[in-house]
Amino acid sequence: MEMSHLAYVLLFLFAAVVLYVQRHRASPSRTANCPHPNPVLGNTVEFIRNRGRFFDCSTLLEWGDPRHQALFAAFDTAVEISFMRTLTAPTPVRKLTKLLNIGKSRRLREAVGVIDDHAMSIIEAKEVSQRNGRDEGDPDLLSRFMAAMDEEDGGGELAAMFPTPEAKRRFLRDVVVSFVLAGKDTAASALAWFFWLLAANPRCERRVHDEVSRSPDGNVKGMHYLHAAITEAMRLYPPVPFNGRVAVADDVLPDGTAVRAGWFANYSAYAMGRMEKLWGENFLEFAPERWLGDSGEFAPVAGVRYPVFHAGPRACLGKEMAYMQMKTVASAVLRRFRLNMVAPTASMDSPPAYEMTGTMKIKGGLQVQLRMSDANKSSLATSASGQEVD
User: Fold this and answer.
1) Which residues bind heme per the record (predicted)?
2) In this predicted model, what pLDDT tens digit does every residue of 311-346 receive, in sequence order?
3) Is 381 exposed, middle or buried (0-12, 13-18, 19+ CB in 10 A)?
4) How far is CA 44 from the centre of its chain?
5) Dist. CA 307–CA 323, nearest whole Å
6) Which of 343 and 296 is assigned the larger pLDDT?
7) CB-side exposure of 278: number of CA atoms within 13 Å?
8) Which residue has the higher pLDDT, 135 or 47?
């Protein structure tokens, strides 16, 4: 009996030592070796690796800033851990790691701390700018939220919901984090699938190239086929394949289904994009033409049928900005280069495997070779000959 008691004591002490060591061990840096190579003609490059370049202009210009590298690493960590936890029920082990601040719980807490600090620094900089009268011109979204909560301007509903300065800052922090989270990897993921689908459908690729080449100034507003092709790519491979809402009050859906307050109402944009009753017999085909009207202009459908950007009054606020961003990047790339797929194989008969985190990514990334387009070759040749004549 005494030996068994001793064994239990030794086992407990061993577990305590292991937990203590893990808790106080320095977390390894996740921001070192963060390569973002420039594309090189003829070399194989990974498209998704440059996802950080679609974040915002300040990050692009200051990519060497360690703060931005740490921010991206923190978002990757937080999204990965949070996403996996949504797929599994809480366990005693998870609760213990949270209590002791070890393992993934510690990594998540540290990542959230980095994200929150960055968001608060943006808010503080905006507050200083407003106090000093430098925040003039067209207001950005953060300025609009701050104005809506300003008691001197009437306050309104938002001011009543967040009556203290601390509560207001927490709300603004959540707004900033939500926008960063919504746009961080989604555009890069959508463009990766878009370029793969173009390579797998040469007819569509030619039409996009023709449309892009007709606009040498890069004005994407009139590129309806490009807009349709990107939309069709997100129908088949939505950046966020499933999403949902929480009911704030009891409600009844149009079909009579009762939804109670606090219930989750989840949906799958991936599944809805592959339903024959919504998209017809060619629902598995990449057909940008389904988005074009008789005049050749883009013809959107109801958000409840295509919920990639949600629907109704809670639809994504960054939808138009996301389209402008993706069309600008796609047209700039296609105007200058031809993309030869290295991996995965460009065939609709063998679609790539995907990996699931917060966004839907091509497993292993999109490996491509860049070749100068014929139009770009002609432009360079004309420019060179003109210089020789002068």
Assistant:
1) 316
2) 888 788 788 888 998 999 999 999 888 888 888 888
3) exposed
4) 24
5) 15
6) 296
7) 17
8) 135
Task: Please state the residue numbers annotated as binding site.
Answer: 316
Nearest to 105 by CA among 19, 13, 16: 19
146 has pLDDT over 90: no
The CATH code that applies to domain 42-55+185-390 is 1.10.630.10
Q: Show binding-site residues for heme.
A: 316
Q: What average pLDDT is seen over the chain?
A: 78
Handedness of CA 290, 294, 298, 300 (dihedral sign): negative
Confidence (pTM): 0.71
Q: How far, in Å, CA of 152 to CA of 147, rounded?
A: 9
The two structure tokens encoding residue 358? 């917060």
- The answer to whether 327 and 230 have CB atoms below 8 angstroms apart is yes
φ, ψ (nearest 5 deg) of residue 346: -85, 85
Which one has a higher pLDDT value, 129 or 158? 129
Long-range contacts of 374-377 (CB under 8 A, 24+ apart): 375/213, 375/335, 376/335, 376/336, 376/337
Rounded Cα–Cα distance for residues 279 and 267 (Å): 17
* DSSP conformation class of 162: S
Alpha-carbon gap, residue 58 to 251, rounded angstroms = 43
